[in-house]
Specification:
- With 309 residues, the protein is an alpha/beta fold.
- The chain folds into 2 domains: 8-77 and 141-306, 3-Layer(aba) Sandwich (Rossmann fold); 87-132, Alpha-Beta Plaits.
- It is 36% helix and 23% strand.
- The strands form 2 sheets. Strands 3-6-7-2-8-1-9-10-11 form a 9-stranded mixed β-sheet, with helices on both faces.
- Strand 9 (208-213), helix 8 (217-232) and strand 10 (237-242) form a beta-alpha-beta unit.
- The chain starts with 6 loop residues before the first helix and ends with a helix.
- Bound molecules: iron/sulfur cluster (SF4) (2 copies).
- The site of one iron/sulfur cluster (SF4) has 14 residues, from helix 5.
- Residues 83, 99-100, 102, 104-105, 115, 119-125 line the site of one iron/sulfur cluster (SF4).
Length: 309
């Protein structure tokens, strides 16, 4: 049985300092088409005249801007503090090496301390140094971007390849958007797949969440995980079944939906025009507005616009 979260953790998850509604688009499984769905809902809402922020919080593999054929603009660096060692002041005590939980520091005989591994900027080494031999340097770990395209503004984040600090980039990205929240009528946050910290951080402040899945045993398994997470944080949610006409797995999804008392709000079938629009980098709601996916996603977007809190 999953332990209940403490009320203050749930409250902190739901806290936001502005009234603009935030809709999360997530899904336990990768490759189910979350970003396609998020991009199309965002485009549809923007085409209704709403001022929309679309946040691509999958900073390890951001692709919302690609699906909209938009460049990434207005870059801001995401930095962490990293230690710089002063060999005049260092007495070789080794306290910083013991304090570093990543085992990233090394003291060659008769030399100054070297940073040889990953550094997450925790600053533990600064705190324990008895001689103030460590000063603050900066390391760039990624960037956030903001691209304005009429009344759709796309925020993306990118982690530098080979680094581990994706949580920092997600947090900076969310901060950038939330600081500007009053400029928008609605904010859509597309998360990375999974149920890990980055997904939780990306969904923080969401008024409701759309869990995207596909009707396969794997899709069902991962839907169960993401709905369990949303249960824990007491998040209002619905399910969108993508590739709904794949044979065999819809019964599984319906059972899981029932288990988590969650409605299936929409089903999008496999559709050649949807694929074509992805390849063209134009949302299907704009390229093929008469197609089944476009009609379904426009209708979902209208519902979201109507029930905005
Ligand atoms: S800041 Fe933290 S992770 Fe980086 S070297 Fe110091 S103790 Fe290690
Ligand atoms: S804690 Fe300070 S003084 Fe000790 S080895 Fe590290 S840098 Fe040098």
């Amino acid at each position: 049985m999953i332990a209940r979260l403490r009320p203050e953790i749930i409250q902190s998850f739901h806290r936001k300092e502005f009234s603009t509604p935030v809709i999360g688009v997530t899904g336990g499984k990768g490759g189910v088409g979350k970003t396609t769905i998020a991009v199309n809902i965002a485009a549809s809402l923007a085409d209704m005249g709403l001022r929309v922020a679309l946040v691509d919080a999958d900073v390890d593999a951001p692709n919302a801007a690609i699906l909209l054929s938009l460049p990434q603009q207005q870059p801001l660096d995401v930095t962490i503090t990293m230690p710089l060692f002063d060999d005049e002041k260092c007495n070789g005590c080794g306290e910083c090496i013991k304090a570093c939980r990543l085992n990233s520091l090394f003291l060659p005989k008769g030399k100054t301390v070297l940073l040889l591994g990953d550094c997450n900027g925790c600053e533990a080494c600064f705190l324990v140094c008895p001689t103030e031999a460590i000063s603050r340097g900066q390391k760039i770990v990624g960037q956030t971007y903001k691209t304005v395209n009429k009344n759709l503004t796309v925020y993306t984040g990118e982690l530098q390849p080979g680094l581990l600090e994706s949580a920092l980039v997600v947090n900076e990205l969310k901060k950038r958007v939330f600081d500007e929240a009053d400029q928008f009528d609605i904010i859509l946050v597309d998360t990375s797949p999974g149920t890990h910290c980055n997904v939780i951080n990306a969904l923080k402040g969401a008024d409701q969440v759309i869990a995207v899945t596909e009707p396969t045993p794997l899709g069902d398994h991962d839907l169960d995980l993401i709905l369990s997470l949303l249960d824990q944080f007491e998040v209002k949610r619905s399910i969108l079944i993508n590739r709904a006409d794949l044979p065999g797995g819809k019964g599984l999804i319906e059972k899981t939906a029932e288990k988590h008392k969650t409605v299936v709000a929409a089903e999008v079938g496999m559709d050649a025009q949807l694929l074509q629009s992805n390849v063209a980098g134009i949302p299907v709601v704009r390229m093929f507005p008469q197609s089944q996916p476009a009609k379904t996603l426009n209708s979902l977007a209208r519902n979201i616009a109507e029930v905005r809190p």
